[in-house]
């Protein structure tokens, strides 16, 4: 699904009105079948049966491709004025995606050591969301963006003028 999103981004100019309309027509049935196949979230079933993997790629991946394709088409033809926070959220999305597994295992022992009690569910949820956003933005700003810029500059040396 991630690779399909990357391919769609690079082929965004090829997504015309007809392709977007076809994706709009495919979206409801793919959503129906994706909703009916929650069992495909279990990786052991996918590993044991290749056809289930193919089915998952077709249904879940097809839904994702159609959704992203329609969003790209709309964004190219009628670009909205996005709030700066949402643009920043989009730029930092990969870092935000990587951070969550680290938040609660680090925050929970600190809370327990300071207050000598277990935190409430609401406190954990708040820390999880705010910590993920804060540390995701920091990781993006001070690591991902500079490394990407250096890698791009290095790779451009090999590109023809």
Chart the SSEs and their pairings:
Blueprint: H1 2-10, H2 17-35, H3 43-48, H4 50-77, H5 84-91, H6 93-98, H7 100-115, H8 121-156
Helix pairs in contact: 1-4, 2-4, 7-8
User: Outline, from the CA principal axes?
Assistant: extended
Fraction of residues in H or I helices: over 70%
Radius of gyration: 21 Å
Low-confidence segments, given as residue ranges, are none
Number of helices: 8
Strand and helix order: HHHHHHHH
**Total number of strands:** 0
What structural category characterises the helix and strand content?
Answer: mainly alpha
Mean pLDDT: 87
Q: Which percent band covers the strand fraction?
A: under 5%
Instruction: Determine the N-to-C terminus distance.
Output: 33 Å
Report the sheet with the most strands, covering strand number, pairing sense and barrel closure: none
Give a structural overview.
The chain has 161 residues and is mainly α. It is 80% helix and 0% strand. It has eight helices and no strands. The chain has helices at residues 2-10, 17-35, 43-48, 50-77, 84-91, 93-98, 100-115, 121-156. Helix 1 runs parallel beside helix 4 and helix 7 packs across helix 8. The chain is extended and about 60 Å long.
């Amino acid at each position: 699904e991630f690779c399909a999103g990357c391919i769609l981004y690079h082929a965004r100019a090829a997504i015309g009105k007809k392709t977007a309309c076809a994706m709009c027509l495919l979206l409801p049935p793919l959503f129906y079948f994706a909703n009916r196949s929650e069992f495909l979230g279990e990786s052991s079933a996918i590993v044991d049966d290749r056809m289930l993997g193919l089915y998952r790629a077709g249904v879940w991946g097809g839904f994702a491709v159609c959704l992203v394709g329609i969003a790209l088409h709309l964004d190219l033809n009628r670009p909205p004025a996005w709030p700066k926070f949402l643009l920043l959220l989009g730029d930092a999305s990969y870092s935000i995606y990587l951070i969550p597994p680290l938040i609660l295992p680090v925050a929970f022992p600190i809370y327990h050591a300071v207050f000598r009690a277990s935190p409430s569910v609401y406190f954990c949820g708040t820390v999880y969301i705010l910590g993920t956003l804060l540390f995701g933005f920091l990781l993006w700003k001070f690591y991902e963006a500079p490394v990407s810029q250096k890698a791009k500059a290095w790779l451009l040396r090999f590109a023809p003028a």
